[in-house]
Write a structure and sequence with these properties.
The protein is α+β, with helices and mostly antiparallel strands and about 160 residues long. It is built from one helix and eleven strands, in the order αβββββββββββ. A hairpin with a 2-residue loop joins strand 5 and strand 6.
């Protein structure tokens, strides 16, 4: 076989192989962007768990307090919801789970109602802080299709 033809075939094979390796990332990335917009949550693809109308609807809120030494202390308040860190990654239950904290687009999973946000996570400027209720399997709790979450803007 001619050396030029062999080089062309090998080059084409490498291009096809690279395309096959990169294509799933591109499809996943596009789906992630679409899912993030649907769930109103940056940074993570979300399954949702819609709370039935017959079930008491969980709520979430939070307060940020400037820490006297560094950063901010976050205190989350909920109703009709129980933190169940021992059940993380298990089947969803309508009133149990944990919280996803988003500082701008950075996700932190919280297993309880208190969290210290160090100043290293809050460089000077405007920040969007969002907390959402999530089921044991990380599904975003929703009610009538709307995420159960709270958002505040913080200027540091």
């Amino acid at each position: 076989m001619n050396k030029n033809i062999l080089v062309s075939i090998l080059s084409l094979a490498v291009i096809v192989l690279l395309a096959l390796l990169v294509a799933p990332y591109l499809v996943t990335h596009n789906q992630s962007v679409e899912n993030m917009q649907m769930a109103s949550m940056p940074g993570m693809v979300m399954k949702t768990f819609d709370i039935a109308s017959s079930t008491p609807t969980p709520t979430i809120g939070f307060m940020l307090t400037k820490d006297t030494l560094d950063g901010y202390d976050l205190h989350i308040t909920t109703t009709n919801f129980t933190f169940t860190p021992q059940n993380i990654n298990q089947a969803p239950v309508a009133d149990q789970g944990h919280v996803h904290l988003y500082i701008d687009t950075t996700l932190t999973v919280l297993l309880g109602p208190w969290y210290h946000i160090p100043s290293t996570m809050l460089p000077p400027g405007k920040h969007t802080i969002t907390v959402s209720l999530n089921a044991n399997d990380h599904s975003l709790f929703t009610f009538q299709g709307k995420p159960i979450q709270a958002t505040q803007t913080l200027y540091t």
